Amino acid sequence: MLLQENENIKKILIIRLSSIGDIILTTELIRLIRKRFPDATIDFLIQKEYKELLRFNSRINNIIEYDKKLSLYEINDARNEYLKGEKYDLVVDLHNNVRTRHWRRGIYKNLVKVRKYRLEKLALVHINNSFNSMPHVTDRYYNVVSHLGIEKDNRGLEVWLEDENAYKAVENSTANKVIGIAPGAKHFTKMYPKEKIILLFEKLMVIYPNYKFKIFGIDEDKPLAEKFIKLNKTAVSDFCGELTLLETAKELDSCDVLISNDSGLMHLAAARKVPSLAIFGSTVPQFGFTPYGNRSEIVEIDLDCRPCTHIGRDKCPKGHFNCMNLIENDIILEKLERLLNGYG
Predict the structure, then answer these.
(1) Of 216, 228, 286, 306, nearest to 254 (Cα)?
(2) Domain that holds residue 83
(3) How many domains does the chain contain in total?
């Protein structure tokens, strides 16, 4: 159903169920929709484990959280309970899968939904790795509602903290310069090898002897963080498995740069206006998930077997993992220096 530009829009539901990066990438569109419809009620449907990312976003009226364990049949039964029988003037489905189709059934007057670019992703992986880039995810989201007179504002992403009345980048108030490192990722083929990142850290300590280092991640990343601490316990703060997403955002604010893989924390850094150095392995920037709206550098190596996936794999299908193993730490250090000097 196509929305007419002059139609009276008073109630809007935005749907994006998961995950960290994908939800952060919706925040530009939330802001733009609020600006276009300042008096509308805007609700957001999300899996409960990600609610924190939008918790203090004042542009949203209601966050509707649900348990992802609900089956499709249970969603049908629970729809009225979660959505309270609401009939929305506009539903904006930024996930557009079988689960969201069940959620949105019968609750809208008008529906717009994101294009998934499934064929283009398959072509990039299986046919031609020089395939033209897909639009950035933020542009895909924007294209869903661009016909409503909504204009981009070039303000990028935003994740709000509790003590912010309006979104702003927090100035670095620490006496020492700080480099953040997020060594993890959901999938093995998106992670820079542990042996290489330890060698990278050893070089960082030599090049930047007066810097502090903050290590971010989940419990599984803690053994690696402990190796960093053994190398220099006075310079390293280990936050792996210790912080909520918003607490991580607050700690990121004091970083001069974040070194990460293609992961959710890469997008969180962009939302907090922290320069980002992102290492790409089995995935490629052409999928449209690069750091957005902030200074960044990408490290990658051109191989015929890249990309082998658009989301990541548990192991290298070729057995050599050259997409990460052939990346030289000197290239990372060169790009890091650019970011620290205000470039990128």
Answers:
(1) 216
(2) 11-148
(3) 2
pLDDT digits (tens, 9 = 90+) for 280-309: 999 999 999 999 999 999 999 999 999 999
Indicate the length of the chain as a whole number. Answer: 344
Q: Concatenated DSSP letters for 5-29? A: TTS---EEEEE----HHHHHTTHHH
- Please state whether beta strands 111-113 and 90-93 pair in parallel, antiparallel, or not at all (unpaired): parallel
| Residue 320 maps to a domain | yes
pTM above 0.85, yes or no: yes
The answer to the question of residue 91 being in a domain is yes
Residues 54-76: tens digit of each pLDDT:
999 999 999 999 999 999 999 99
Q: Are residues 128 and 220 in the same domain?
A: no
The answer as to whether 5 is a domain residue is no
> How distant, in Å, are the alpha carbons of 220, 223, 242, 259, 285 from that of 201?
18, 14, 21, 11, 25
pLDDT in tens, 136-183: 999 999 999 999 999 999 999 999 999 875 444 444 444 579 999 999
Q: Is residue 162 part of a domain?
A: no
Question: Could you give the 3-state DSSP secondary structure of residue 290?
Answer: coil
Grouping H, G, I as helix, E, B as strand and the rest as coil, residue 54 is helix
Note the pLDDT tens digit of each residue in 207-247. Answer: 999 999 999 999 999 999 999 999 999 999 999 999 999 99
Tell me the H-state helices in 211-263. 222-231, 245-252
Matching residue, tokens 């850290």: 201
- 158 with 273: CB under 8 angstroms? no
Looking at residue 137, its amino acid is V
Asked if 4 and 32 count as a contact pair (C-beta separation under 8 A), the reply is no
